[in-house]
Amino acid sequence: MSTLRNKVQLIGNLGNDPEIVNLESGKKLAKFSIATNENYKNNNGERITDTQWHNVVAWGKTAELVENYVAKGKEIAIEGKLTSRSYETKQGEKRYITEIVCDELLLLSK
Fold it and tell me: If DSSP codes are grouped into helix, strand and coil, which group holds residue 84?
């Protein structure tokens, strides 16, 4: 059960082409966001689609897969862990980010 403590699995579509960063250390980083949709009926019986956006990062070989095969609109399945970090803007404001670090990627679109 310890592997379930921080595990995220999502299927969704990319909102934009991934951003690929080649770091000085030689590592590759891919940043992208995916949208997941949940459908339900409200109290009036109307069908509602709730879209949630998720920020995702991938490193190394997974980032290379993203760079070569993933583009805006593609449906993918990801597995990873949820992480949070903070940074300070040039104006001195503290900002917080929650994102998914992708360990595995499955291409679902043709």
Answer: strand
Which is the CATH superfamily of the domain at 2-107? Nucleic acid-binding proteins (2.40.50.140)
User: Of 13, 31, 19, which is closest to residue 101 (Cα–Cα)?
Assistant: 31
CA 103 to CA 63: how far, in whole Å? 10
- Is 71 within 8 Å of 19 (Cβ atoms)? no
Q: Give me the helices (H) in 1-110, please.
A: 60-69
pLDDT, tens digit (0-9, with 9 covering 90-100), for 30-80: 999 999 999 999 999 899 999 999 999 999 999 999 999 999 999 999 999
Distance, CA of 9 to CA of 51 (rounded, Å): 16
Q: pTM for this one?
A: 0.84
- Spatial contact of 80 and 60, defined as CB atoms under 8 Å apart: no
User: For position 55, what pLDDT does the model report?
Assistant: 96
